Amino acid sequence: MKDQDRYFKKRLGAYTVAPADETEIQKTIFAGKQLLLKNPVQELHWYRRIGNQFRYISPLLWLSQLLAIGLCMLLIRQMGSGADRTAILSAISFIVALLGVIGFPEICKSFSWQMWELEQSCKYNLRQITAIKLSIIGTADLIIILAITLFTSLQTNLPMWEMALYFFVPFNLVCIVSFFAAGLARKKNPVSPIFPAGFGAALLMLFCINRFSLYQSLSIPLWLILCFGTFAILIWKAAQFIKGMDEGGLAICS
């Protein structure tokens, strides 16, 4: 990188720009103003902004989510064959928790691709772009988890709200850990610590569920407290993450 910098500086130093005439400068400025008056910047509707960001999300994310859905459906079908329901539920919880990790490369793409300074200077700045991406991916994850919850509830004859507790708590915890990991990646690629941190949190949750029989040992009121508590922390971390974009990405890059 340093060699490239020296090369470009050397090439740029070989060029000289003739001083411009003040009259020509004023003519250029006037022509630019006239052009702006003829073509005023139009405010994009919110659905167009969402559509624009949706197109930039990698298809790999949607393929990963489809793979997660397929694996969960296969596990749900095994419940009717007399298999250990606790083991299957814990495996589904693990897959659902991983959904909280796979979306972060897209959310942090501006930083990993070193585009955050350019996007911060645009009309629809970095904060707005990140918030839209976060909303798109979060909504997709929510729909997927609710669908998995519904099918699992039908297969186990357990209330849907109870199944939602078992799935949302691991998902929320992994998302919280991923946000913390992204915030600690100062002046580095923020994606690199997210995967080991999120995957490790999901594995730890899987171990605790199986080792300590959390589905049986924890009461429903305690699961409710965990669910609402993790939701509150997750919303706080997401808001903190987006708020940091006002400072030009300092939440991650400073």
Number of DSSP strands? 0
* Count of individual helical segments: 14
Overall 3D form: elongated
Distance between the termini: 21 Å
Structural category = mainly alpha
Helix-strand topology string: HHHHHHHHHHHHHH
Radius of gyration computed on alpha carbons:
24 Å
β-sheet strand percentage: under 5%
Largest sheet: none
Mean pLDDT: 83
**Domains counted in the coordinates: how many?**
1
User: Low-confidence segments, ≥5 residues, pLDDT <50?
Assistant: 248-254
Helix percentage: over 70%
Keywords: Membrane, Transmembrane, Transmembrane helix
Transmembrane segments: 56-76, 88-108, 129-151, 163-182, 194-212, 218-236
Description:
It is a single chain. The protein is an all-alpha fold. The chain has one domain. Helix content is 78%, strand content 0%. It is built from 14 helices and no strands. Helix 4 packs antiparallel against helix 5 (85-102) and helix 9 (126-156) runs antiparallel to helix 10. The chain is elongated. The two termini are 21 Å apart.
Chart the SSEs and their pairings.
Blueprint: H1 2-13, H2 22-38, H3 46-56, H4 59-78, H5 85-102, H6 104-107, H7 109-112, H8 116-120, H9 126-156, H10 160-184, H11 194-212, H12 214-217, H13 220-243, H14 250-253
Helix pairs in contact: 3-9, 4-5, 4-9, 5-10, 5-11, 9-10, 10-11, 10-13
